[in-house]
Amino acid sequence: MIYTFYRQHIFPHLLNQVMQTPSLMDKRRELLLPVSGEVLEIGFGTGLNLPFYQQVNTLYALEPNPDIYHLAAQRVHETPFEVQHIQARAEKLPFADQSLDHIVSTWTLCSIANLELALNEVYRVLKAGGTLHLVEHVLHNDNRTIQRLQNLLTPIQKRAADGCHLNRNIERAIINAGLELEECRYFDAAGIPAIGQRMLLARAVKR
Ligand SMILES: C[S@@+](CC[C@H](N)C(=O)[O-])C[C@H]1O[C@@H](n2cnc3c(N)ncnc32)[C@H](O)[C@@H]1O
Questions:
Q1: How many separate domains does the chain show?
Q2: By CB neighbour count within 10 A (0-12 exposed, 13-18 middle, 19+ buried), where does 2 fall?
Q3: Ligand 1 pocket: which residues have CB below 6 Å?
Q4: Where residue 49 sits, what CATH number does that domain have?
Q5: What's the confidence (pLDDT) of residue 1?
């Protein structure tokens, strides 16, 4: 009961705050600048990407958790383009095959329960030439100590942060799904604890 209260009433506010860390907001701007037209965002969260979309007409805001989406209300209201909430999971996208040019994921692939299924769905709904734009925290491949800690603490992190894995190799998962990495850059985000600091900013294309 306490855990349910935490998940519904405390965690969404914590998420909304942490995800506004300035270094993360800078990366949102960089990632979203070239995204245009009709766009699907998976794991929309509290709508923190909205101010950074410059050329979008319609945004499909896929967010399964109503307690989290609730905190996006004001931002959605202030957005000059159409935002359609889709309450669904990325493992079963309610879109036709080859129907989208752009899909966005910002710090969502860590939380999806079945990542392989979700990336297969992303591949299915992207048009040929379509792009998955993503920025995610990832398994630290260059530091064995941090990697061990990430593996050790992921079970606790999953409980505390609504399914978030600290130890996912996102680059590998994307390649396994058949997408081709057009841009792939690792960096350490300022203001984030070392265990979740290693990030990947990438654009992956369906050929
Ligand atoms: C760490 S938050 C990131 C939120 C937002 N993308 C951002 O950049 O602030 C992860 C988000 O993924 C969502 N999520 C979890 N499982 C999901 C799934 N299976 N499909 C789609 N979204 C999911 C969560 O509800 C949450 O909003």
A1: 1
A2: exposed
A3: 15, 19, 42-43, 45, 48, 62-65, 68, 89-91, 106-108, 111-113, 163-164
A4: 3.40.50.150
A5: 87
CA distance 25 to 134: 13
d(CA 130, CA 60): 16
Instruction: Compute the distance between CA of residue 191 and CA of residue 113 in angstroms, rounded to an integer.
Output: 27
Which residue out of 105, 111, 117, 170 has the highest number of ligand 1 atoms within 8 Å of its CB and is therefore the one to mutate? 111
Distance CA 12, CA 56 (A): 26
Domain holding 98, by residue range, is 2-205
Residue 163 Cα, ligand 1 centroid: separation in angstroms?
Answer: 9
Q: Which amino acid is present at 152?
A: L
Question: Which ranges of 8-65 does DSSP label H, i.e. alpha helix?
Answer: 11-18, 22-32
How confident is the chain (207 residues) per 10-residue block, as mean pLDDT? 94 98 98 98 98 98 98 98 98 98 98 98 98 98 97 98 98 98 98 98 98
Residue nearest to atom 5 of ligand 1 (CA): 45
